[in-house]
Design goal:
Layout (H helix, E strand, L loop, with lengths): L1 H9 L6 H10 L3 H4 L6 H30 L2 H24 L7 H30 L1 H52 L2
Helix pairs in contact: 2-4, 4-5, 4-6
Length: 187
């Protein structure tokens, strides 16, 4: 049995550069992970989630800033900064989770992280959601604008008619006076 175990431990496994990168993204200790090849896929998967969360955060923040400021350079800079912040925060959250204590203690430790993840998820997804539904939102806005425009036009026409009433009366009176003067002047 001892020879079999030595053979298993002596098997030479090598981590490729992409797996190593993803393991670093997960917050795993590469020196320890080299000794436990069975954990490589788990840590690489966690690193992939952290990496893609940061990539989507970068794209989302960049797009949000571009729609607001219409400047590609400031949007790109802010997007990269936001993505790096999300990457570091997510990496910290993932790497600081420890399975110690009772089930209740683990739940209590997870609540702030879940609240933060929910908050970040909303922030990250909102610009994308607005872009996806942009046509429907614009259509609804145009409908509201047209309805308000018709209502305001009706109100303005009513005011004009209200205010033109006295002018019409005065115009009639002036026309009658002119007609009377014309009659009195004509022989």
């Amino acid at each position: 049995m001892k020879n079999n175990q030595q053979t298993i431990n002596q098997t030479n496994h090598s981590i490729n550069w992409f797996q190593k990168f993803l393991m670093v993204c997960s917050g795993g200790n590469i020196h320890i992970l080299r000794k436990t090849p069975s954990e490589w896929n788990k840590f690489a998967g966690i690193g992939g989630i952290v990496l893609f969360t940061a990539v989507f955060a970068t794209l989302s923040a960049g797009y949000a800033m571009y729609t607001v400021f219409d400047n590609i350079w400031s949007a790109s800079g802010f997007g990269v900064l936001w993505g790096l912040m999300i990457f570091n925060l997510d990496r910290y959250i993932v790497s600081s989770i420890k399975k110690t204590g009772t089930w209740w203690n683990q739940v209590l430790m997870a609540i702030p992280r879940l609240v933060l993840a929910t908050f970040l998820g909303i922030i990250i997804s909102k610009p994308l959601e607005l872009k996806i539904f942009e046509k429907e939102v614009n259509k609804q806005l145009n409908t509201i604008i047209q309805r308000n425009k018709k209502q305001l036009q009706g109100e303005m026409n009513g005011r004009i008619l209200q205010q033109s009433g006295p002018f019409e009366t005065e115009k009639k009176q002036i026309s009658e006076k002119i007609a009377n003067y014309q009659k009195s002047y004509d022989p």
